[in-house]
Amino acid sequence: MEKILDDELHMYVSWDTYHSKIEELAQEIHDTGWNFNQIVCIAKGGLRIGDTMARIFDVPLAILSAESYGGTGVKDEQGGITFSRDLAKTTPNLGSRVLLVDDLADSGVTLQKTMRWLEHYYGFYIEEVKTACIWEKENSEVSPDYIVDYLSTSPWVHMPFEKYEDDENFNKFKERDL
Fold first, then answer.
1. Are 40 and 118 in contact (CB under 8 A)?
2. Which residues neighbour 74 within 8 Å (Cβ) at sequence distance 6 or greater?
3. What one-character-per-residue DSSP string does 104-126 give?
4. What tens digit of pLDDT does each residue of 134-170 get?
5. Could you tell me the pTM of the whole model?
6. How far apart are the C-alpha atoms of 24 and 27, rounded to whole Å?
7. 3-state DSSP call for residue 53?
8. C-alpha Rg value of the chain to the nearest Å
9. Cβ(64)–Cβ(86) under 8 Å?
């Protein structure tokens, strides 16, 4: 269940809600009839979405690892973007119609730069790219082609898989005798 705090600065997403939102996004894409033959997900945030979409649509998944947040605690300061050197994929070539997925369009910078990265390294394969995110924040400079929810208050979205990004949970895990 999603919960927005009184100050509307934070939104906490449960696993059930997260999975439901991915299904809603898949349905929206399906309903348009767009025929794509490759999914590229931006990891880490888009990794689970890309995996689920690849299974639902039965198309290959490629993973582009990117990091745009840094800082202490919950990695809450957006800075420069660092990309992996290449895509991780199981096909010899990238598909020609690419669905690029991430969890949310926050500022939109990651989507913009990823589109440029794809064009630079794989443009000779690509005929068309469309973007899909579960959430789009009000302050995003990019509107994905497909979204489930528009967040007019631009809250910080706390994903269910971010458990080990806060100091308390990370330290508890580190202290275990593995």
1. yes
2. 162, 165, 166
3. EESSSHHHHHHHHHHHHHHTTT-
4. 999 999 999 999 999 999 988 999 999 887 766 554 5
5. 0.84
6. 5
7. helix
8. 17
9. no
φ, ψ dihedrals at 40, nearest 5°: -115, 125
**Is 90 within 8 Å of 103 (Cβ atoms)?**
no
Pick one of 3.40.50.300, 3.30.2130.10, 3.40.50.2020, 2.60.40.1120 as the CATH number of 14-151: 3.40.50.2020
CA distance 40 to 126: 12
**Length of the chain counted residue by residue:** 178
Q: In Å, how far are 77, 112, 134, 135, 160 from 142, measured between CA atoms? A: 19, 7, 14, 12, 25
By C-alpha distance, which of 58, 64, 158, 161 is closest to 111?
Answer: 64
> Cα separation of 97 and 75, whole Å?
33
Residues 78-99: tens digit of each pLDDT: 557 888 889 999 999 999 999 9
pLDDT in tens, 100-136: 999 999 999 999 999 999 999 999 999 999 999 999 9
- Two tokens at 119? 């064009």
Q: CA-to-CA distance for 115 and 162, rounded, in angstroms? A: 26
Tally: H helices and E strands in the chain: 4, 10
